[in-house]
Write a structure and sequence with these properties.
mainly alpha
Length: about 45
Amino acid sequence: MRKIVLAMMLAAPLLASACNTIAGLGKDVATVGDVVTKSAEDTK
């Protein structure tokens, strides 16, 4: 039981940082999409 709790305590920060990374990547992709959309609107 102690090994499971210890493994969960060690894995929690890694999982939290992965969520932040994925959220940041999503924001970056959204920003690129906005730039492409604006460029397409400007060239019409």
